[in-house]
Amino acid sequence: MAIENQIEQLIIESVVKELAKRGLMNNEDNLTISQEKLIQEKASKDEVCCIDEEPINIPDIDGVWVPDPVNLEAIKAMKATTPARIGLYRAGARPKTNAMLRFLADHAQAMDAVFMDVSDEFLAKEKLFAVNSFAKDKEEFLKRPELGRKLSEEAIQTIKEKCHRDVQVQIIAVDGLSSSAIEANIPEVLPVLLQGLTAAGIKIGTPFFIRNGRVGIQDHVGKLLKAEVVVSLIGERPGLVTANSMSAYIIYKPNENTLEADRTVFSNIHSGGTPPAEAGAHLVDVIKKILVAKASGVKFTQQ
Q1: From CA 8, how far away is CA 10, in angstroms rounded?
Q2: What are 130-155's pLDDT values in tens digits?
Q3: Which helix H or strand E contains 185, and what residues bound it?
Q4: Per residue in 46-83, pLDDT tens?
Q5: Is 154 exposed, middle or buried (0-12, 13-18, 19+ CB in 10 A)?
Q6: CB 126 within 8 A of CB 186
């Protein structure tokens, strides 16, 4: 029963936290009241649940749980090459409790990456001013992707006031579908990128951050500032393996006829993929080549 209570507590906390993020709760007092209400409803069904339990330890799923496997070493070898959930076996037709707890925890982390915003404190520390896409909030951003590809009128005015035009490279950070990826990777990627391009004598615009933005918003930025190259550092769609993965999209002179095939993409930037600092150095080399080739995407690779 204690394990079942742990699972239910984790679900309750995840639901209440999500409601608070969406503005359906005003403060911590409301969150506590809601938790108690849900727990009281549970107790009314003659099941024991205690809110004062110790914090849940997220289970480790690195081991092989299959009983008496035919080839244990083969399973270990597979697990060593992938973070996929293999070799965890089952309890009847269901996942084992620890596997289920880990699934719920990873799923909650992925949801946080999508729904949470990059903090103002982080942006101030990284010296990035922020603007918004045409999507007025996170809900509209998720339901109407096309609005995330355009800058708001206020954003256009702010960018005109704070950014130089006709630069060789304009760098933007975009939350995309993972604010966690921005906070996890920008502190290492951006300095390497700026230092490398500056050392190469390349004229760089003022980097800034876009909330509720999609990949295509770099086209709007490029046309607005007449930048030769626009580099978007954007959060990737989170999964159960990581919520911190970031991609870099590079476009050469975007215009009304720009296609997705015109973008050069470097993905899987995170501590478990390509390390952020290494990715920054690689991007510097790619950008220099794109400036020489005067093309990006498929046109760039065909040269």
Answers
A1: 5
A2: 999 999 898 899 899 999 999 999 99
A3: helix 179-199
A4: 444 444 556 667 788 888 999 999 999 999 999 888 88
A5: exposed
A6: yes
Q: Are 179 and 210 in contact (CB under 8 A)?
A: no
Going from the C-alpha of 167 to that of each of 103, 131, 171, 282, 291, the distances in angstroms are 46, 20, 10, 21, 12
Beta-bridged to residue 233, according to DSSP, are: 173, 248
Token pair belonging to 232: 């978007």
Own/partner pairs, 147-154, CB within 8 angstroms, 24+ separation: 147/212, 148/212, 148/213, 148/214, 148/216, 148/217, 149/213, 149/214, 149/215, 149/216, 149/217, 149/219, 149/220, 150/217, 150/220, 151/210, 151/217, 151/220, 151/221, 151/224
Name the residue with tokens 């295509």: 216
Which of 254, 128, 136 lies closest to 189, judged by CA?
Answer: 128
State the residue for tokens 């995170």: 270
Which H helix or E strand runs over 301?
helix 297-301
What is the tens place of the pLDDT at every residue in 160-189? Answer: 999 999 999 999 999 998 899 999 999 999
